[in-house]
């Protein structure tokens, strides 16, 4: 049986040179120590993933390692902050080597790709629970806040929407998908891609005003921008870029799952109309599609319209963990 | 039923002016934003508390709120870092108002006492799990690291040891305690006092070299200092300051529970012998007793001795969550 200390040493405390080194002092003391990046603010986000809630029991550990960090990096992306480091607190029913190897491999592959160092954490026995707190650097005044949208702003979305929700519907038997379609859609559910490069570009080049990452569904998450900015919006539901698998489904599903699917981890952001060309260029430079999907307005509330501008009532709701 | 957003708003997102304000941007965005304290490093620690492992099912929520933050502040104390802020990730079986009121009251009472702001976090449904990540400020080169002990250093301990372990023994029926003794000892288990002022004084005045907080038992935790510093030590077990309830128990229990009890959250630190008077004065200024309990030596290993200097074999072990 692995001890707690051996577990950390073997799977999470990597020798110098084998990963990004951002901390003055990393794993192994009471605290980690980070030196401030000169003149920068620190963006901080915590996400907790619970078995049976955020992922299925028996989930592949490598995918789970990826996703656990991806949802946190997505929060940094939504602020336009560059990843620096993260802590990992992990409750495990048992210390199983295969699981730990897979989980840490998936975690570090994504961490290394974003130059983000595991600097500390905690391990304990308990029902499977993964809590990551991530740290990023952003210049003062440059962060993409939820309260910064202005009437007249375009609303943009990165990538595509709805395939993660479609995969869930397939697993639940709500929708019949063939095996290839199910597998393709499931990749979006299990392996979300945090849009870090795009978020950083939008912030550092001053292209966007407000931003949020889409975890609970576009309509619900955009609602947070509207509420905190004291504005409203009109959203063209037929302009929403459906994921490649969802795009082949009937219109009712396309509209519902792209507007309120959840687990997309795309960036929704608002920007002055004068920035359109530069935003398209920034997306191209990052290899991330960007699509204009609506407009911020002074009138409160979110108005959904179809491609012809006619009102749509999709009876959608964001995801609430206690609903 | 409380929604996730109402839960955060009602119990955790306090209006400006009702608590410490340390963040540029707090609860309600994708990330919190902290401005760097000029020239300071950020000390970061995460602890995860699991029901049935770190506390009993049905634990009083106010005490639990206190303890959840206390164990994290204790990590800052062990680095000599001043508390700045923390994130809270919380998995709850259900959103119960009484529980949330008690938990948040206990949490914020301690947070306010240490000028430490809740800046963000996450809430979800799941088996009860509390994960706090805490942030502190410490000047470069001043942090009390585990790898800094030197042969010849005195070994010191703050406060008293063993009452938390005694309370656990009483609850388990391993020791017979009367109700008053059980209640008094239990306070140490449920309401640990993080030694923040002492840790900060030791670091800022340059009085101590290495430090660690005692969560898993003195012998085991001191062992981390010895391993990382590449030194050994002799510990005078009869010099260990037993808690007031433990002090009335037989010698065997006094020795075992003060040397390896766990859940004490006292500071063990090493210091040059020339600092003795200033350390006693710093302890007095903080209202925290400090006691010399041994000496760091070049010879590897930890030697336990009695008050007469004769070797003791207590057959102790630190606490390992996966043992």
What does this structure look like?
Chains A, B: Mg(2+) 5 binds at residue 216. Chains A, B: Catalyzes the ATP-dependent phosphorylation of thiamine-monophosphate (TMP) to form thiamine-pyrophosphate (TPP), the active form of vitamin B1. Chains A, B: Mg(2+) 4 binds at residues 30, 45, 75. Two copies of one chain form a homodimer. Chain A has nine helices and eleven strands. In chain A, β3, α3 (97-113) and β4 form a beta-alpha-beta unit. The longest helix of chain A has 19 residues, at 61-79. The two termini of chain A are 40 Å apart. The first copy, chain A, is α+β, with helices and mostly antiparallel strands and 323 residues long. Chain A has a six-stranded mixed beta sheet, sandwiched between helices. In chain A, strands 2-5-3-4 form a four-stranded mixed beta sheet. Chain A has two domains: 4-138, PurM-like, N-terminal domain (60s Ribosomal Protein L30, Chain: A); 154-305, PurM-like C-terminal domain (Phosphoribosyl-aminoimidazole Synthetase, Chain A, domain 2), CATH 3.90.650.10. In chain A, α2 (61-79) runs parallel beside α3 (97-113). Chains A and B meet through α1, β1, β2, α2 and β3 of A and α1, β1, β2, α2 and β3 of B.
């Amino acid at each position: 049986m692995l001890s707690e200390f051996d577990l950390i040493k073997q799977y999470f405390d990597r020798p110098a040179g084998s990963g990004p080194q951002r901390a003055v002092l990393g794993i192994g003391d009471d605290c980690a120590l980070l030196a401030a990046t000169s003149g920068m603010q620190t963006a901080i986000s915590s996400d907790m993933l619970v078995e049976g809630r955020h992922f299925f029991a028996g989930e592949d550990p490598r995918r789970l390692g990826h996703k656990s960090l991806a949802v946190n990096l997505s929060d940094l992306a939504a602020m336009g902050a560059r990843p620096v480091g993260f802590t990992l607190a992990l409750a495990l029913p048992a210390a199983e080597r295969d699981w730990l190897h897979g989980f840490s491999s998936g975690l570090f592959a994504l961490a290394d790709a974003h130059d983000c160092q595991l600097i500390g954490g905690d391990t304990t026995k308990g029902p499977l629970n993964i809590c990551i707190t991530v740290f990023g650097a952003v210049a003062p005044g440059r962060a993409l806040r939820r309260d910064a949208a202005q009437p007249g702003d375009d609303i943009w979305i990165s990538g595509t929407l709805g395939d993660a929700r479609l995969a869930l519907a397939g697993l639940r038997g709500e929708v019949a998908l063939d095996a290839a379609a199910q597998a393709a859609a499931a990749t979006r559910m299990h392996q979300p891609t945090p849009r870090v490069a795009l978020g950083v570009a939008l912030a550092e080049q001053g292209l966007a005003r407000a931003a949020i990452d889409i975890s609970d569904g576009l309509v619900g998450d955009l609602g947070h921008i509207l509420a905190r900015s004291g504005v409203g919006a009109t959203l063209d539901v037929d302009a929403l870029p459906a994921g490649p698998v969802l795009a082949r489904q009937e219109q009712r599903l396309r509209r519902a799952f792209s507007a309120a699917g959840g687990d997309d981890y795309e960036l929704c952001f608002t920007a002055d109309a004068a920035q359109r060309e530069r935003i398209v260029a920034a997306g191209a430079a990052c290899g991330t599609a960007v699509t204009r999907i609506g407009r911020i307005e002074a009138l409160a509330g979110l108005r959904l319209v179809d491609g012809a501008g006619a009102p749509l009532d999709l009876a959608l709701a964001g995801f609430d963990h206690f609903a």
